[in-house]
Specification:
By secondary structure, the chain is mainly beta. 12% of the residues lie in helices and 45% in strands. It binds calcium ion.
Length: 298
């Protein structure tokens, strides 16, 4: 029994050790190659499966690219420093900004003709605009006041107070959604203007700042982002950006003036035609678009 083994066992990573045997590398270890290969393959498969799941989750979370087509290019007042845009009963309603130039106006879609206008006192800078029933609500930038107008006459009817800056505004039939230049989307009571709740807007897991003009469409809120040539489709229940429309072609085709302020800003939706109207500050053009997958279009 001189060659009998005193003991044997399995070391980590598939190495079998034999205390008596000196056959393996002079270290007293014997490599079970089949076992090593089997465990290596199992480990490799687990790693690949994990990587696949991570990539799949990332892919699911990533915002999709929104395809669109321009249906019409229409005239737009190149003096309008557009800050809010909404469509109601076949008319465009527009809020314009800048101190001393701010207004709210009713605009004929096809021609860009201003058929009604109310000018704000010079200490107010107009911002986001929404239609709530038979009234218009217009934000101001830093003045902490929203103006309420009668829709049919543009007569001021009321004011609403809020803290912080006012940027974008839209109404989904239940509540108002508002931005203030941060990454937060606020939901407000349409009557009292109280904040009901708020959401951080994220794209591919990261917060998006400078959310500006808004448009409520179904379960989404569409937003353009200050100084970016993009329109975001945001799930208003989660704050996640579901889709991104690259608006660079619109920016180039707008014949906007060579001013840094002349950025994309203004989204309105026509639920009957299921099309969007998009413009920018001081742009001489207004675009009517259809976006794939929105409002039943494919
Ligand atoms: Ca809008």
């Amino acid at each position: 029994m001189g060659n009998s083994r005193k003991s044997a066992g399995t070391a980590p990573y598939g190495l079998q050790y034999d205390l008596d045997s000196k056959r393996s590398c002079g270290l007293g270890y014997h490599v079970d190659r089949k076992e090593v290969v089997r465990k290596h393959m199992a480990s490799s498969l687990r790693a690949r499966a994990l990587l696949f799941c991570v990539l799949a989750l990332c892919a699911c979370d990533r915002a999709a690219e929104l395809e669109y087509r321009v249906l019409r290019t229409l005239p737009h007042d190149s003096g309008a420093y557009t800050q809010g845009l909404v469509l109601h009963e076949g008319w465009l309603w527009e809020s314009t900004g800048r101190y001393g130039e701010s207004s709210v106006r009713k605009v004929r879609i096809d021609t860009g003709e201003i058929v009604q206008i109310h000018r704000l006192p010079e200490q107010y800078f107009g911002e986001g605009l929404a239609v709530v029933d038979s009234q218009l609500v217009q934000l101001t930038w830093k003045e902490g006041v929203a103006f309420v107008y009668e829709l049919d006459s543009l007569s001021p009817r009321d004011t609403l107070a809020y803290e912080g800056e006012g940027w974008g505004l839209c109404y989904d039939g239940q509540a108002l959604y508002m931005t203030n230049g941060s990454s937060t989307l606020f939901r407000r009571d349409a009557r009292t203007f109280e904040v009901l709740d708020s959401l951080e807007i994220t794209r591919d897991g990261f917060p998006i700042w400078n959310l500006n003009e808004l448009e409520c469409v179904g379960e989404d809120v569409y937003a353009n982002v200050f100084l970016r040539d993009e329109i975001l489709q945001i799930d208003k229940a989660t704050g996640r950006v579901r889709g991104v429309l690259d608006a660079w072609t619109l920016v180039v085709g707008s014949r906007r003036p060579a001013e840094t302020d002349a950025v994309l800003n203004g989204i309105a939706y026509d639920p009957s035609a299921r099309t969007f109207f998009v413009t920018g500050k001081l742009w001489p053009a207004l675009f009517e678009l259809e976006i794939d997958g929105v409002g039943g279009r494919r």
